Amino acid sequence: MFVRVTSSQIKNATSVVPRSIVYGLLMNGTIGFATLIATLFCIGDLDVISKTDFTYPFIEIYVQATRSKGGSAAMVALILVVGLGLDIGIMAAASRMLWSFARDRGVPGWRYISQVRRLPFSKYTALYSYEPYAR
């Protein structure tokens, strides 16, 4: 789970925010461990996986598990879609934190980053200010 609001917008933030972080860690840890166990049970020949022509060896694990390139492609597409969603969330959180720090005059260029103008696309100033560091 991903906490997408700042703690200043939550009632009783001193107990709610840490609890949400712990719950998120527990949920993601459980899902990650289950995925690890499932992958270890489905893993096939390690020599074939280590010498695969695919860029990422996990694709070969999918091919061996499903015995189908179409099924493997669908599973990889699912991972890519989830990764894209995670990237959008990370960029939104990072740009929001940058804007908050700029509002409090805590970063260089705070005058420019913290401005909120009514022009189209002006709310993306913090996002575009953060973007070069994301690479």
What order do the helices and strands come in, and which of them pair?
Layout: H1 13-42, H2 46-50, H3 57-66, H4 69-103, H5 110-113, H6 125-130
Helix pairs in contact: 3-4
Global Rg: 21 Å
Number of strands: 0
N-to-C span: 24 Å
Q: How many helical elements?
A: 6
Structural class, from helix and strand content? mainly alpha
Rounded average pLDDT: 81
- What low-confidence regions span 5 or more consecutive residues with pLDDT below 50? none
Describe this structure as you would to a colleague.
It contains six helices and no strands. By secondary structure, the chain is mainly alpha-helical.
Summarize this structure as a short list of keywords or feature phrases.
67% helix; 6 helices; mainly alpha; 135 residues; elongated
Summarize the structure.
This protein has 135 residues and is mainly alpha-helical. It has helices at 13-42, 46-50, 57-66, 69-103, 110-113, 125-130.
